[in-house]
Amino acid sequence: MLKKDLRKKYKELRSKLTPEELDDKSMAIANRLLQLDIWELTYFHLFLTIEEQKEVDTEFILQILAGKDKEIVVAKSNFETREMTHYLLTDNTKFRKNEYHIYEPVDGIEVPVSKIDVVFVPLLAYDTKGNRVGYGKGFYDNFLSKCKPDVVKIGLSFFEPEALIEDVFLSDIRLDYCVTPMTVYDFR
């Protein structure tokens, strides 16, 4: 399928999930992450859930990371340049919701992308090769292209993979893993 068709399909599938299903599936994804061999690493980049889009609730992952004393990094997006600035999450971090319903840090301690070890990647769909479909703005492909070569890229999805995304671009960055409530897919 083409990306535009996959976006439509998975937005529709997400819209049908009840609040209870969102909670249960998000918790299952967080628990399944514990199976991955990533916990010796230090800097974890986490996206903050867009509730209006019925994304995976990353609050459960946030609790695991905090419990393991990991350095948690969150981003602020610039929609003119399509760049993200990355900040260390601290007790003093203040957030505001932008016009796209994304919670973003107002300011804080900036973290260079070269420090980031693991990136949890939002997505709408993905395929059996680790290609993903996001919202189409290119923020994450741009960001991931600047990360160190061994950064671990982990997609989070309520759903199983598609067989093939037909219109993958050379600039699209593949995932290393995708974690669903039932399975961990390894694309390395």
Automatic annotation (TrEMBL):
The keyword Ligase applies. This is 5-formyltetrahydrofolate cyclo-ligase. Its cofactor is Mg(2+). Belongs to the 5-formyltetrahydrofolate cyclo-ligase family. Its EC number is 6.3.3.2. ATP binds at residues 3-7, 132-140. Substrate binds at residues 50, 55. It catalyses: (6S)-5-formyl-5,6,7,8-tetrahydrofolate + ATP = (6R)-5,10-methenyltetrahydrofolate + ADP + phosphate. Keywords: ATP-binding, Ligase, Magnesium, Metal-binding, Nucleotide-binding. It comes from Flavobacterium silvisoli. It is an enzyme of class 6 (ligase). Signal peptide: none annotated. GO terms for molecular function: 5-formyltetrahydrofolate cyclo-ligase activity; ATP binding; metal ion binding. NCBIfam families: MTHFS_bact. One of its GO terms (biological process) is tetrahydrofolate interconversion.
